[in-house]
Design brief:
This protein has 210 residues and is mainly alpha-helical. The protein has 2 domains: 1-58, Arc Repressor Mutant, subunit A; 60-207, Tetracycline Repressor, domain 2 (Orthogonal Bundle). Helix content is 79%, strand content 0%. The chain contains 11 helices and no strands. It has helices at 5-36, 39-46, 50-56, 60-78, 80-83, 88-105, 107-118, 125-148, 157-173, 175-181, 189-206. Helix 1 crosses helix 2 and helix 7 crosses helix 9.
Length: 210
Amino acid sequence: MSEQARPLRRVEIRQQNETLILQAAEKVFAEAGFGGATMQLIADVAGLPKANLHYYFPTKEDLYRRVVQNIFEIWLHAADSMDNAPGPVEGIGAYIEAKMEISRRHPDGSKVWASEVMHGAPVIQDYLETTLRDWTTGRAALIQRWIDEGKMAPVNPEHLLYMLWATTQHYADFGHQIETLNAGQPLTEAQWRAAKDSVKSMILRGIGAL
C-alpha cells in the first residue's frame, strides 16, 4: 500500500466508525434519553469497543451534543431552498418537502431534539439562544417580505414557522402513533407522497399562497 493510500484508508475508517457511533447514539438517546443512555450501551449498539467511543467522543455529553448538532444542521440545510425562492409556494413548499423527508429518514434525531427541548434544553440551550434564534429571525424576515409583496396572507411569521415545525416533525416524533393508525404498518412510498402533498396544500392554501 502506498504512503498516500494509508492516510486515505485511516480517514475512511474514522468516517465509518464515527457514522456507526452517531447512528447508534441517535437511537439510544432517542429511546433512553440523555440520563438513561450509557457509553457502554451505545458501544454495544454500534458493535464497537467502548474505548473507540471515548477516542472519538471523550464524554457522553460530547457525543450527545454532536447528535443534536447533526439533526439541527440537517434541519437548517432544509431551509436553503427558501432563501432564493421567488415566493412562498416554491420556498415554503420545498421546505415542507425537505422537513418531512428528514422526519422519514431521521426520526430518532428528531426525537432526541424534542426530548431535550421538552426538558428545558439543559445541554443545548446555547443552540437555542444563538443559532436557532438567528435562523428564525432571518426566515421570519423572508416570510414578512413575501407578505409585504402580496404573495401570501398577513400571518405572524414566527407562528407560521412554529406550525411548520410541529406539523412536519410530528411524522417523526409521533411516528408510532401514525403507524398504529395505519393498521400497524409504516407509511408506504405512496402514502408519504400523499402526506407531503396534503400538508403542502393545506398550509399554502391556509396562508393564501395558492
